[in-house]
Amino acid sequence: MPALAEFADIVKRNEPLAPYTHLRLGGPAELLVQPRTREELSAVVRQCFQEHLPLRVLGSGCNLLVRDEGVPGVVLRLSEPAFTQISVEGKLVRAATGASVSALISHAARHGLAGLETLVGIPGTVGGALRCNAGDRGGDIGQFVRHVEVLDSKGNVVVRDRDELRFGDRASNLDDPVLLAVEFALEPESPDAIVKRMRKAWILRKAAQPLSFQLAGRLFKNPRGLNAATLIEQAGLVKTKVGGAEISDRDANYVLVRPGATSRDVLRLIDLVRTRVQERFNVELEREITVW
Ligand SMILES: Cc1cc2nc3c(=O)[nH]c(=O)nc-3n(C[C@H](O)[C@H](O)[C@H](O)COP(=O)(O)OP(=O)(O)OC[C@H]3O[C@@H](n4cnc5c(N)ncnc54)[C@H](O)[C@@H]3O)c2cc1C
After folding, report:
1. Which residues contact 275 (CB under 8 A, 6 or more apart)?
2. Spatial CA neighbour of 262 closest among 215, 210, 227
3. What are the helix (H) ranges across 111-190?
4. Residue 221: CB within 6 Å of ligand 1?
5. What pLDDT is recorded for position 211?
6. Which of 37, 268, 284, 288 has its CA 20 to 30 Å from the CA of residue 1?
7. What are phi and psi of 275, to 5 degrees?
């Protein structure tokens, strides 16, 4: 019997993943699963555990490079309504992790709850943003989190409270197999004032990220006290190409993906940049983009 045979309604076999990712690269998922309810999701996770099937969760694929050979096992997509709900109670906003960060921000703003608006313009889902503590110098998502509901590898719901959560520079300790939902504590403020700040943050972000509308991905975390783009530039790597992958001349920490590029091109370019920066400055660049 094929794996997950009893979940045929929600499973796509050998499903190309490129269309689900920002860079539009990479091979298929052996099994792409889109559960409709929490119960269905728990049952799938439990079965993966019992059958030793690798399990990954796909958000919007904005921080993801899928290898050309594809991904073995199960890729979960939490796109059904049960996983995209957002609700407000007093100062608390609760969001399921499949919701988009933009929907979360506008929901909070409409209810006169401030804090998250500095994240405006960061693409992706709430789950992806929590995992990597999305943000920038203006703030990050982690600072507003009260608790996170997760599924453990056996499909049980576990609540991670604030005091056990660690949010760092584009990183968190939320390494549970599935992040389900999160509760944020925000501050009341007039919706007009929030929207005004949101517009300002949007303009600043667009100016800082001129590549938002191209097939471009951010490659490395900034090493402590340093800037990855500056190191790459000073190593003379701007516009360096491997196949269809090229280091951007507008922000050297972004790879541009040209027609015909493969994931292998991007991975080889990443290796080349790391090696050159290490040789030149003795600094080890840590990848920001997740590779599957
Ligand atoms: C143009 C552009 C601009 C960007 N600007 C910024 C920026 O300013 N600041 C910033 O921080 N980031 C930025 N990013 C990166 C990206 O937007 C964030 O990392 C985003 O949070 C990724 O969310 P996602 O839903 O696309 O996650 P994906 O890329 O789909 O996944 C990323 C990781 O999160 C995991 N994951 C996702 N959802 C779940 C879940 N529910 N449970 C468990 N694991 C999960 C995945 O398994 C994977 O390991 C930018 C990206 C682009 C393309």
Report:
1. none
2. 215
3. 126-131
4. no
5. 63
6. 37
7. -65, -45
Ligand 1 atom nearest residue 62's Cα: 26
Q: C-alpha distances in angstroms, 267 versus 21, 25, 66, 201, 252?
A: 16, 11, 10, 32, 16
Q: How far apart are CA 284 and CA 291, in angstroms?
A: 18
Name which of 15-29, 76-90, 200-214 the model is least confident about: 200-214
CB 264 within 8 A of CB 25: no
**Residue 121 CB–ligand 1 contact under 6 Å:** no
User: Candidates 63, 85, 119, 218: which one to mutate for ligand 1, based on the most atoms within 8 Å of Cβ?
Assistant: 63
Sign of the four-CA dihedral 252, 253, 259, 264: positive
**Neighbouring-strand partners of residue 127:** none
What pTM, to 2 d.p., does this model score? Answer: 0.94
* 262 within ligand 1 shell (Cβ under 6 A): no
**In the prediction, which pLDDT does 204 show?**
84
127 CA from centroid of ligand 1 (Å): 8
* pLDDT of res. 14: 97
Give the domains, in start order, of the chain with CATH numbers.
5-81 (3.30.43.10), 84-208 (3.30.465.10), 216-291 (3.90.78.10)
